[in-house]
Amino acid sequence: MSTTPLWTSGAMAEAMRAKVRGTLPEAVTGLSIDSRTIAPGEAYFAIKGDVHDGHDFVEAALKAGAALAVVEAAQRHTFAPDAPLLVVDDVLAGLVDLARAARARLKAQVIAVTGSVGKTSTKEALRRVLGAQGETHASAASFNNHWGVPLSLARCPATVRFAIFEIGMNHAGEIEPLVNMVRPHVAVITTVEPVHLEFFAGIEAIADAKAEIFTGLEPGGTVVLNRDNSQFARLQRRAGKLGISRIVSFGADTKSDARLLDVSLHAACSAVHANILGHDVTYKLGMPGRHMAMNSLAVLAAASLAGADLALAALSLSQIGPAAGRGARRVLETADGEATLIDESYNANPASMAAALNVLGHAAVGPHGRRIAVLGDMLELGPTGAALHRGLADAIKANHIDLVYCCGPLMRNLWDALSTGKRGGYAESAAGLEAEAVAAIRAGDAIMVKGSLGSKMKTIVNALERRFPGKTALDEAAV
Question: Signal sequence span per UniProt (predicted)?
Answer without folding.
Answer: none
